[in-house]
Amino acid sequence: MLLAVDVGNTSTVLGLYRGTSLEAHWRISTDARRMADQYGVLLRNLLALDGTDPPRRAVVSSVVPHAAREIADALRRWYGVAPLLVTHETVAPLLRIETERPAEVGADRLVNALAALRYEGDAVIAVDFGTAANFDLIVHPDRLIGVALAPGPMIAAEALFERAAKLPRVDLTAPERAVGRNTVDALRSGLVFGYAEMVDGMVARIEREAREIVGAEGRVRVVATGGFADVVGPHARRIEAVDPWLTLEGLRIVADAQG
Question: What pLDDT does residue 165 have?
Fold first, then answer.
């Protein structure tokens, strides 16, 4: 059994694989103060919750270094597993990172790029709705060309709630119409439909640059993932597919390549 862990700024996603099959998955909040023993308790409870076997291997991508260290310590202490920590050097045999400073590319971007290469075509634009909204351009067979970053929907919502005293906190769900007749629907419209339009605009720009590489007739795919992909994705015209486990799949690919 392989445990794949992606530590993001807001959420940590864990998946347990048997071969190439995702047997169980969980999402927990990321807490940079959480210690190894606490992760040990969490892991034990999550595994017990689904009645799954303990991991024999593990792979971790993280943008929160302290959390990655504590998770690695917990896996070593409680399961005798030394996890593979994803870096640009780890994925170098599988992916050509064509940015100016490969070491600065987040581990989540690298594993998303590897998983995106499963999609047929000449290039893939992977849109990841996390704390940030990330746009990765990947060109077949093995090239990560670059990344664009913007604040994610929840960061934008939190900024509104904190700066505008009279605005209520709302769930990120799509209203029926773009023009809201009340404050809640007005906020939801801007946050969901507004982000969908931003995605379409960014994808159009990135696709034009992709076609400079793959040619005018090349096929450019667009796939979305991340915590808000299910909310925003259906309203973005350019998104072809929502793949909730893209990052976990990329982690599995890295781990399997390492043996």
Answer: 61
Kindly list the catalytic residues.
108
> What is the distance between the alpha carbons of residues 76 and 243, in angstroms, rounded to a whole number?
31
End-to-end Cα, the chain, rounded Å: 13
Q: Which residues of 85-111 are buried (b: 16+ CB within 10 A; e: fewer)?
A: bbebebbeebbebeeeebeebbbbbbb
What is the C-alpha separation between 223 and 74, in angstroms, rounded? 33
Strands 132-139 and 241-242: unpaired
pLDDT of residue 169: 76
DSSP code for 233: G
- The Cα 179–Cα 182 span in angstroms is 9
Identify the structural domains of the chain with CATH numbers, from first to last: 2-85 (3.30.420.40), 120-245 (3.30.420.40)
Instruction: Tell me which residue of 129, 143, 142, 123 sits closest to 192, measured CA to CA.
Output: 129
pLDDT digits (tens, 9 = 90+) for 99-122: 999 999 999 999 999 999 999 999
> What is the rounded CA–CA span in Å between residue 96 and residue 145?
8
* pLDDT tens column, 214-224: 999 999 999 99
| Residue the block writes with tokens 């034990």 | 44
* Average per-residue pLDDT for the chain: 93
Alpha helices (runs of H) in the chain, residue ranges in sequence order: 36-50, 65-79, 88-91, 107-116, 153-163, 183-188, 194-214, 229-232, 246-258
